[in-house]
Amino acid sequence: MSHKKEQVLRHYVANICAAVSPKLVEARKKLADDKAARAKVDSEIPATFIFTDLPKPRDSFVMMRGAYDKPGDKVQPDTPKALPPLQVKDRRANRLDLAKWLLSNEQPLTARVTVNRFWQQIFGIGLVKSSGDFGVQGEVPSHPELFDHLAYRFRSGGWNTRELIREMVHSKAFRQDSAAPAELWSKDPENRLLARGPRFRLDAEQLRDNALYLGGLLNEKKGGRGTLPYQPPNIWEPVGFTGSNTRNYTQDKGDKLYTRSLYVFLKRTAPAPFMSNFDAPNRETACTRRERSNTPLQALQLMNDVQHVEAARGFAANLINAEKTDEGRIRLAYRQALSRQPSAEEARIVAILLEKELAKYRKDTAAAGKLARVGESPVPSGIPEPELAAWTMVCNLVMNLDELINRN
User: Fold this and answer.
1) Of 132, 171, 177, 270, whose CA is between 20 and 30 Å from 394?
2) DSSP letters of 95-147?
């Protein structure tokens, strides 16, 4: 009874009593402000779901023919009989037991699968080609002894990823020239015998990041919210739900526009076009190995996409500011983009292109100004627009060379 009386008194004092109510206005306002500030902080703190075990785990059963209302035999957490058993005594196994089992000496698959994925990343195809299937229906290793050696070294060396990759890239197999006689390519098109160095197109993220880096635009900041780079209009809108926070696409500005592609926000129903064009998975299902296609859209993107043209413009401005002569700029472009000097024939061809582009843009200054302003990065000052436009086209050519798009 006393509790109800206290509630009535508080309600009366706070909301009814005219004599007391004005004295509480300030306190009520401060309380409301504090609640709003706390709600703002709570909404800004990143959150994630976590898993915890129930104090008393639920019983699990084999459901007969998958029917939820027909439980069969009672089961406990365990590993398949074909694999080493979990090391648990007199209690129910949990996720920590599974994690320890995955890294135990009795479980060889973890090290082998990990080594195969890194080999696939560096050489284009794994020692086991079916990198997502190590079972009886998967492929056998192309080099079993090498596979065993790398997996053993990786596990016994403390799972040192840096050392594993260093061993791979320092190997004679990796440091070979990717050029080979046509006969060898026909006999071993996938390079399973490692008779030549690996050669394959860079992934979508690497292509964009490489272009941004050459253009002096790449923002290497780590972490943070996903970035929303350049994208054609009306990609998200047709598949967005009313009221969804991804209903409309709002492009980022400033440095976030040039964040590494690792942080590009991916909407599964409408992935970033530059990713889809270069075979990046849409993340609706697990992808253990990316396919590599060759389509006209890829060439059009690399030559005309806002991001790549803007990067070429940045690359051109850096060359113009770094070197005084056309010959020096051409040499520097090749050295920065391809880590080598141009041959005499290459330098001659690029010089001819530069001369043609300069003549064109000196006549058409409006087109030069339009090209010089592609993208949202500031236009370099002190460089005549026809010169900047001509060198942008030269840099666009260099950035579309086969050597830059493919790993050789």
Assistant:
1) 177
2) HHHHHHHHTSTT--HHHHHHHHHHHHHHHSS-SSS-TT--STTSPPPSSHHHH
Q: Which helix (H) or strand (E) holds 57?
A: none
| Nearest residue to 306 (alpha-carbon basis) of 220, 392, 219, 224 | 392
Q: What is the pLDDT of residues 30-68, one digit of tens each?
A: 888 899 999 988 888 887 887 788 888 888 999 999 899
Mean pLDDT computed over 386-402: 96
| CA neighbor of 195 nearest in space, from 170, 214, 174 | 174
Residue 53: DSSP 8-state? -
What integer pLDDT is reported at residue 18 of this predicted model? 59
For 208-277, the three-class secondary structure string (H helix, E strand, C coil) is HHHHHHHCCCCECCCCCCCECCCCCCCCCHHHCCCCCCCCCCCCCCHHHHHECHHHECCCCCCCCHHHHH
To the nearest whole percent, how much of the chain has pLDDT over 90?
Answer: 64
| CA pair distance 408, 200, nearest whole angstrom | 7
Report which residue type is found at 105. Answer: N
Tell if the pTM clears 0.90, that is, is over it. Answer: no
The answer to whether the CB of 361 falls within 8 A of the CB of 389 is yes
Tokens 């785990």 sit on residue: 57
Q: How far apart are CA 276 and CA 207, in angstroms?
A: 13
* Residue 283 Rama label (left phi>0; alpha psi -120 to 50; beta): left
Q: Which residues have C-beta within 8 Å of that of residue 184, sequence separation ≥ 6? A: 195, 196
Whole-angstrom CA distances from 118 to 111, 176, 287, 293, 385 are 11, 18, 15, 21, 45
Sequence-separated (6 or more) residues with CB below 8 Å from residue 319? 329, 332, 333, 391, 395
pLDDT at 260: 95
pLDDT digits over 124-140, tens only? Answer: 999 999 998 888 888 99
Say if CB 311 and CB 217 are below 8 A apart: yes
**Both structure tokens of 84:** 């080493």
pLDDT of residue 117: 95
pLDDT in tens, 271-323: 899 999 999 988 888 888 888 899 999 999 999 999 999 999 999 999 999 99
